[in-house]
Write a structure and sequence with these properties.
The protein is α/β, with parallel strands linked by helices and 350 residues long. It has 8 helices and 11 strands. GO terms for molecular function: DNA (cytosine-5-)-methyltransferase activity.
């Protein structure tokens, strides 16, 4: 059986690619950014609908799974009440309206790592409780791209809800051996942007961090040193990512949606250079056949705002196995949705 999904806040289609690789079929998409919609059209021959607030949810075709990498928009009274009263005026409310009308079998939501801490945890609780009120059993966790065969340390919050009162088990996701950054690099060619030796400083005996990162050096730029511990100036938050250099023998830090210049520098084969656009897209799991159109600044923004495809594909495979193809006559215990409190939340994240 081919299951159908809709792709909300679709971006350039990372969620879609992952689910299509698992055999799902997309029947509707929505994205407000003009450039992202153009890229989506170029790669899927389908132009997403625009502003989700202007879409008549009654006109959306029937579907089994709802996908949404929704923005972390402020919830003004998050956690004070229940259901729609907590989320009116937010973009998540638009998702909830579609869920309420269509009652899809499964919901898969994605957000940034720190979503769980937004408004002291109240936003996550509100999202979970809203889904519970709509009849869904929910589970959530943090997943890291580096555990799914992509050499990027990129953690994301994943929330999955099931209408059949079966709780998704994230522990059943199959991880892959960690790759090194050098495994996805393009072959040497004349268009690579190298730094001159006087433009950077390498550190002695760089050590690999638990994240897989190997901080190898830094660009010789003026940086703020006040308030930092000795010998940590180039790793401090005030010394922003564009000045850091990482070894190709390790993983790469999270690609940022705010980095429009592509200032990602690596140490490889005794030289320091920028990652290419294609390498950035490879770090997200996009195939080389994926069409890159538009200015480089927009392309860097788009890739930094996307989702890692191999991770999504594994989620899709397990959604199919655990939730859609489940034998509901089996004696597996069911989980009854209930409201989560801040007390529950603090126990979970502590």
């Amino acid at each position: 059986m081919t299951y159908k999904f809709i792709d909300l806040f679709a971006g350039i289609g990372g969620f879609r690619l992952g689910f299509e690789k698992a055999g799902f079929n997309c029947v509707f998409s929505s994205e407000i950014d003009i450039h992202a919609r153009e890229m989506y059209l170029a790669n899927f021959q389908e132009k997403p609908d625009g502003d989700i607030r202007k879409i008549n949810h009654k006109n959306i075709p029937n579907f089994d799974v709802l996908l949404a990498g929704f923005p972390c928009q402020p919830f003004s009274i998050a956690g004070e009440k229940k259901g729609f009263n907590d989320i009116r005026g937010t973009l998540f409310f638009e998702i909830a309206k579609i869920i309420e009308y269509h009652q899809p079998k499964v919901i898969v939501l994605e957000n940034v790592k720190h979503f769980k801490n937004h408004d002291n945890g109240k936003t996550l609780i509100t999202v979970l409780n809203t889904l519970n009120n709509l009849g869904y059993t929910t589970s959530w966790t943090l997943l890291n791209a580096k555990d799914f065969g992509v050499p990027q340390n990129r953690e994301r919050t994943i929330i999955i809800g099931c209408l059949e009162q079966i709780q998704f088990d994230f522990d059943k996701l199959e991880t892959k051996p960690q790759k090194k950054l050098k495994d996805i690099l393009e072959n040497e060619h004349e268009k690579l942007e190298y730094l001159q030796e006087d433009e950077y400083t390498l550190i002695e005996n760089p050590k690999q961090q638990l994240s897989g990162l190997i901080f190898a050096g830094y660009r010789n730029k003026n940086i703020r040193k006040k308030g930092t511990r000795p010998n940590t100036e180039h790793l401090s938050r005030v010394h922003k990512q564009p000045n850091r250099i990482y070894s190709s023998e390790g993983t790469h830090p999270t690609l940022s949606s705010q980095e429009s210049s592509g200032r990602y520098y690596i140490y490889h084969n005794g030289k320091v250079r920028k990652l290419t656009l294609r390498e950035c897209y490879r770090l997200m799991g996009f195939p080389d056949s994926f069409k890159l159109i538009g200015s480089s600044s927009k392309l860097y923004n788009r890739v930094g705002n996307s989702i890692v495809i191999p991770m999504v594909e594994e989620i899709a495979q397990q959604v199919k196995k655990q939730l859609l193809e489940k034998n509901f006559d089996s004696p597996t215990p069911l989980f009854k949705p209930r409201q989560m409190s801040l007390f529950d939340f603090n126990l979970f994240v502590s």
